Each structure stands twice: as C-alpha cells, then as structure tokens.
C-alpha cells in the first residue's frame, strides 16, 4: 500500500512538472530604449486596456528611492501627516495592505521620497484653495497640482517633470523644504483670498462660482507670481522680492480676476494645457499688465451677441460668473445673512414652451438676478411686483434697483406679449 502511494506521488510530481513546465514559460518583456522623458507616455499607452496609470504614478515608481529627510518644523510635519494620511486611507478604504507600513515608524523616522513630497504639496494647495477645490478632491488632482507646482518652482518644463529628480540634493534639506512650502502656500493663499472677494456666492455657507477654471489656468496665477518674485539661489536658498506696498507682486495679483474673466469669455484655456502654462514661468507671458477696459468690453460684447442669438432656458456658467462678480463689486451688495438663488426675471414657465421657437435668450445675463431663497420658493410663477400684491411679501425698492429689475410697466408688457405670442414669431 505504501509502495503504491509512493509510486502515485512520483506520478503526480512528474505530471505536475511536465504540465506546468515552469522553466519553459515565455515571459514577454518590453525593452524601452527611448528618452526617459517619454517613459510616462509609454506606460500610459500600455495601460489603455485596463486601469490607466497616470504619469505621476509612473514617477512614483521611478522615484521611490529619492529620499528626503524631514524635521519637526511646521510644514515638515504637515507634509509628513499628509503622506501618512494617504497610506492610512489606502489601508482602510481600499482594503490594500501596504507592506511594512507603520504610521508610528514614519513619524519617528520622518523620511519620505520625492513623489510623496509632490503629493503632500498638492494636498496642501487644495486645503488652502477652497475657492477652487474641495478637500474631497481626488489623489490624481493632488498629484497634478503638486508635481506641476514643484516644476514651476524649479523652472522645469511641465512636459519634462521627470527631471525634478535632478534637484533632489537641493530638496533634501528640511530647512529649505520648510522655507519653500511656507512661501508657496502663502502665494496660493493670496490667490485664494483674491478670488474669494469676487467669486463668493451670496450664501450663508461658503460657495463659489468657480466653474470657469482649469487646473493649469489656476496654476498659471501661481507661475506668474512665483517666477517674477522668487528664485532659488545656487546655495540652495530661497530668495524673495515681494517686500514693499506697491510691488509688482501686488499689481499682478490684483489683475488676476480681470484675466480670469477675459480668458473664460474667450475660452483661452479650453484646449490649452501644459504648453500654455509653461509660458508664464519659462517665457515672458504675464498678468502684470491689466487688460484695458475696451479689451474687456469688446470681449464681453462679442460673447453677448453670440449668446443672445439663440434661444435658451437654463443659465450658462459665463452669465453666472459675470453676475456674481458684478454683485460682489457693489458696495451695498445683497442683504447679508441670507441665501440667494439665481432666478429668472421673466420666469421659466412663461417662456419654456416658446423660447426655442421665438429664439428667446431666457437663460442669459439680461434675464438673471439673485433672489432670496425663501422668496424664490414662495413666488413660483409671479414676478416681484405681483408677489408684493398677492403674496404679501415686502421687496424693498432698493433691492429692485440694485438688481436692475425692470419697471412694473416694462415687465407687465413683456408678460402680456409672451402670453399672446402662442409661439408665433
């Protein structure tokens, strides 16, 4: 019996060996002989069939041994906490076991790598830019903002971010990292505070009209402010030229909202990306000189004429942006402590069945206003003058004037014409 089992075992081993033939398995490999700058693109193409790797994930694989030693200073600790939080989230939310990861050990050793530094920078940018980003934004966004920002800081072409590892000797200095991050985050905070004034919606909770932005457009403000006012010396120190009241830094920052509107209305960044971003720190393109009033007027009128040439019902993002900025520029603004909605002056129900036939631009700037949310819900199909009479609401004359609301006679005539049109031109 035992002999039979031994013979059977030998037969099984022989069958397994010859079935698998491990030593004869051919493993396909790709030998990359091109420039390292193309490596990220190659990986992107290889992974088109499955879950795509971002170029930042490729960099992370390449830079795992570019060590950076941190210290106990403020931003050093913030960086370390962002990296640790990332790995803890991977452990908890994605059920991925990270081998040899220990938060306590990382806090004690204070060691990270270059890709982790870029990620942490991106997360800190997001946290200090609430006008444009939510803290719940993805890891990919943090990578893009962090890597690109470090590229701007060191004057590296955004298409050649792989060369950032050439600066590891300079970066691997905890005091320099502290100084660098403090300066960079201050610039991003200044940008956020500038746009806070113009883009905040009249809400009790902080919300912003920020749809006309792209990541590279956002980074271009930082690129211009940083490249014109900061530099890294040969000794690996940060030099700043932002002192004084009337500096070029302050002038450039004050112009950002004008370019934000001009670029949005001309769709300048619609298909633009890293090449256009490069112009603001590798070339001479700048926000230093403010667009003229005529430039802005011409751009807005061109957009306006195109916008009102077709019928519309829903508000477009450009109209929302202009109305929001215009409201925030007014000294009185809207009544404080309330929530306001975008609302049609000539209400939707009076045009929804005929706006296409009659080509009525109901969803654009001339038919928009901010209206108290409570009043908006109660008024339904009434205009404000009817609301005063029927609903017993008291809408101050000052509020009507502030919103350029039509006179009672004008709005009454419009509603009569719409009622009588029956969709006929």
Features:
425 residues; mainly alpha; two-stranded antiparallel sheet; 53% helix; 5% strand; globular
**Residues in helices, as a percent range:** 40-55%
Query: Which sequence of strands runs across the widest sheet?
Result: 1-2
Poorly predicted runs are: none
Content-based structural category: mainly alpha
Query: Can you give the mean pLDDT?
Result: 86
Q: What's the total helix number? A: 18
Spatial gap, N to C terminus? 101 Å
Biggest beta-sheet profile? 2 strands, antiparallel
Q: Element order, helices and strands?
A: HHHEHHEHHHHHEEHHHHEEHHHH
Overall 3D shape: globular
Q: How many strand elements?
A: 6
Strand content: 5-15%
Q: Report Rg.
A: 30 Å
Topology of this structure?
Layout lengths: L1 H19 L18 H8 L8 H8 L4 E3 L4 H20 L9 H7 L1 E3 H14 L11 H15 L14 H4 L2 H26 L15 H15 E3 L5 E3 L7 H19 L7 H9 L10 H15 L9 H13 L10 E5 L23 E5 H7 L4 H8 L5 H6 L5 H14 L4
Antiparallel strand pairs: 1-2, 3-4, 5-6
Helix pairs in contact: 2-3, 4-6, 6-7, 7-10, 9-10, 9-11, 10-11, 10-12, 11-13
Structure, explained:
It is a single chain. With 425 residues, this protein is mainly α. The chain has 18 helices and 6 strands. It has helices spanning 2-20, 39-46, 55-62, 74-93, 103-109, 114-127, 139-153, 168-171, 174-199, 215-229, 248-266, 274-282, 293-307, 317-329, 373-379, 384-391, 397-402, 408-421; strands at 67-69, 111-113, 230-232, 238-240, 340-344, 368-372. The strands form 3 sheets. It has a two-stranded antiparallel ribbon. Strands 3-4 form a two-stranded antiparallel ribbon. It has a two-stranded antiparallel sheet with strand order 5-6. A hairpin with a 5-residue loop joins β3 (230-232) and β4. α2 (39-46) packs across α3, α7 (139-153) packs parallel to α10 (215-229) and α10 packs parallel to α12 (274-282). The longest helix has 26 residues, at 174-199. It starts with a helix and ends with a helix.
């Amino acid at each position: 019996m035992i002999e039979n089992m031994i013979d059977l075992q030998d037969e099984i081993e022989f069958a397994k060996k010859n079935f698998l033939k491990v030593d004869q398995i051919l493993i396909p490999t790709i030998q990359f002989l091109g420039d390292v700058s193309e490596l990220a693109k190659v990986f992107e193409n290889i992974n088109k069939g499955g879950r795509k790797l971002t170029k930042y994930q490729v960099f992370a694989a390449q830079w795992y041994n570019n060590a950076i030693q941190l210290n106990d200073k403020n931003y050093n600790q913030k960086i370390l906490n962002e990296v640790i939080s990332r790995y803890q989230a991977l452990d908890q939310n994605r059920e991925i076991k990270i081998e040899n990861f220990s938060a306590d050990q990382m806090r004690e050793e204070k060691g990270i790598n270059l890709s982790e530094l870029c990620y942490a920078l991106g997360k800190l940018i997001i946290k200090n830019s609430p006008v444009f980003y939510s803290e719940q934004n993805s890891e990919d966004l943090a990578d893009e903002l962090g890597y690109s920002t470090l590229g701007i800081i060191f004057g590296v072409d955004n298409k050649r971010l792989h060369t950032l590892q050439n600066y590891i000797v300079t970066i691997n200095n905890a005091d320099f990292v502290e100084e660098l991050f403090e300066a960079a985050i201050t610039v991003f905070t200044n940008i956020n505070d500038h746009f806070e004034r113009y883009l905040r919606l009249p809400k009790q909770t902080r919300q912003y009209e920020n749809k006309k932005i792209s990541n590279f457009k956002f980074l271009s403000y930082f690129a211009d402010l940083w490249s014109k006012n900061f530099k890294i010396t040969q000794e690996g120190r940060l030099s700043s030229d932002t002192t004084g009241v009337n500096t070029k830094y302050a002038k450039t920052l004050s112009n950002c909202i004008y370019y934000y509107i001009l670029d949005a209305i001309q769709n300048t960044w619609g298909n633009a990306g890293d090449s256009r971003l490069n112009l603001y720190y590798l070339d001479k393109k700048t926000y230093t000189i403010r667009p003229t009033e005529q430039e802005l007027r011409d751009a807005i009128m061109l957009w306006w004429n195109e916008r009102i040439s077709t019928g519309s019902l829903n508000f477009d993002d450009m109209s929302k942006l202009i109305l929001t900025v215009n409201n925030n520029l007014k000294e009185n603004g809207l009544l404080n402590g309330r929530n306001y909605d975008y609302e049609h002056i000539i209400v939707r129900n009076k045009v929804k069945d005929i706006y296409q036939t009659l080509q009525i631009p109901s969803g654009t700037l001339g038919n928009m206003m901010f209206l108290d949310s409570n009043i908006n819900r109660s008024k339904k199909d009434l205009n404000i003058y009817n609301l005063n009479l029927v609903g017993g609401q008291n809408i101050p004359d000052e509020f009507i004037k502030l919103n350029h609301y039509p006179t009672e006679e004008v709005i009454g005539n419009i509603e009569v014409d719409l009622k009588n049109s029956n969709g006929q031109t």
